[in-house]
Amino acid sequence: MRAAPRLVPVGARKPNQLAEARLRQAWRFVMGPALADRTRLLRVEREVLVIGCWELTRIAALREASLAVWPQMRDRIHRALRLSLRGIQIVPCDPPVPTPTLPQDPDPLRRALLLLETRHQERVRLGLEAE
């Protein structure tokens, strides 16, 4: 029996982009709810998971804790997402920008066009498309 093809997130063409997209989707599962609220995925660089934390007082403790639990996290990521990572790095970052809630437009076509425009702007921001 032939295996079903895997769905790839839009714009994820390079291996690092694919890894980042899959990790972003499963961030709460990978980090756990307590850490997921204080950290965010910045990038996957040379098979190293780079995590940002905006609470500067917690970075040292997170680095120590990550060394202790990294083998379990690495195994969880490998089992669930089939990603092979070699290490973890925790760096300071800016807090996440709250996403503005757009008013709900009753016209479904206008909502679809707005969604497409938002996705296009995100792809331009990521450097996957030209303006």
Description of the structure:
The protein is 47% helix and 15% strand. With 131 residues, it is of the alpha+beta class. Helix 4 links the parallel strand 2 and strand 3 (87-92). A three-stranded mixed β-sheet has the order 1-2-3. It folds into two domains: 15-94, DnaA, N-terminal domain (GMP Synthetase, Chain A, domain 3); 99-131.
Number of helices: 5
Radius of gyration: 17 Å
Overall average residue pLDDT: 82
In percent, how helical is the residue content?
40-55%
SSE order and pairing:
Elements: H1 15-25, H2 27-31, H3 33-36, E1 39-45, E2 48-53, H4 59-81, E3 87-92, H5 108-125
Parallel strand pairs: 2-3
Antiparallel strand pairs: 1-2
Primary descriptors:
47% helix; alpha+beta; 2 domains; 131 residues
Summarize the structure.
By secondary structure, the chain is an alpha+beta fold.
